[in-house]
Amino acid sequence: AQSVTQLDSHVSVSEGTPVLLRCNYSSSYSPSLFWYVQHPNKGLQLLLKYTSAATLVKGINGFEAEFKKSETSFHLTKPSAHMSDAAEYFCVVSAYSGAGSYQLTFGKGTKLSVIP
Amino acid sequence: DSGVTQTPKHLITATGQRVTLRCSPRSGDLSVYWYQQSLDQGLQFLIQYYNGEERAKGNILERFSAQQFPDLHSELNLSSLELGDSALYFCASSPQGVAGLYNEQFFGPGTRLTVL
């Protein structure tokens, strides 16, 4: 079975300062990991994904994440926050669930606030 | 725009009623997933269909059912509605090929269901 723990339910940063959203995962198999973002009253949009090709993954809008197997972590970072980054972020693990299917398990989300 | 469409955008109904939510996946995607997002439960996987057949079940109540039609669109039927069913319901699609582990899901904008 797989699970995801997002360590902070709410993170607040000032505009122009770095962003760090923390995620730990647990999976019985080699997982695939994703970060999705959800802006208010919108659907979920993929930020980036880890597919075992490289441990440092670059995504859209300047975000990146580093896969650390020894720490079972997949933290999301951005060097400089922008007001438009204010949203909810979900760390997601994908793993084989049987019968040729792969299931996504979502963390509870981290709400990012950006202070002008 | 993810290419996944959902109708209706909003739905308000009364307890005990039955509603149908509709989803059209991205062109060419064979898998459709349904999710429920509520404040207390977060994002919960309900059910997956692949090319017309049910492939995986998550935390779906017996009062809920779904199907995927030959043109690959899907419907989620919710019956005997209760106040606690009020939530945002998302549909997502993915190609679900051999490399399914790394296939991200593309989410629609959601249907907000309010049960009064």
Descriptive overview:
The complex is a heterodimer of chains A (116) and B (116). Helix content of chain A is 0%, strand content 59%. Chain A has strands spanning 3-6, 10-14, 19-21, 23-26, 32-38, 44-50, 56-58, 64-68, 73-78, 87-98, 101-106, 110-115. In chain B, the strands form two sheets. In chain B, strands 2, 4, 5, 6, 9, 10 and 11 form a seven-stranded mixed beta sheet that branches. At the A-B interface, β5, β6, β10 and β11 of A face β5 and β10 of B.
Q: Which blocks of ≥5 consecutive residues of chain A have pLDDT under 50?
A: none
Assembly status: heterodimer
Number of helices of chain A: 0
End-to-end Cα distance of chain B, whole Å, is: 31 Å
Low-confidence stretches of chain B: none
State Rg of chain A.
14 Å
Main features:
heterodimer; A: six-stranded mixed beta sheet; four-stranded antiparallel beta sheet; B: 116 residues; mainly beta; seven-stranded mixed beta sheet; 0% helix
Brief account:
By secondary structure, chain A is mainly beta.
Q: How do the strands and helices of this protein lay out in sequence?
A:
The complex is a heterodimer of chains A (116) and B (116).
Chain A: E1 3-6, E2 10-14, E3 19-21, E4 23-26, E5 32-38, E6 44-50, E7 56-58, E8 64-68, E9 73-78, E10 87-98, E11 101-106, E12 110-115
Parallel strand pairs in A: 2-12
Antiparallel strand pairs in A: 1-4, 3-9, 5-6, 5-10, 7-8, 8-9, 10-11, 10-12
Chain B: E1 5-7, E2 10-13, E3 19-24, E4 31-38, E5 42-50, E6 53-57, E7 64-68, E8 74-78, E9 87-94, E10 106-107, E11 111-115
Parallel strand pairs in B: 2-11
Antiparallel strand pairs in B: 1-3, 3-8, 4-5, 4-9, 5-6, 7-8, 9-10, 9-11
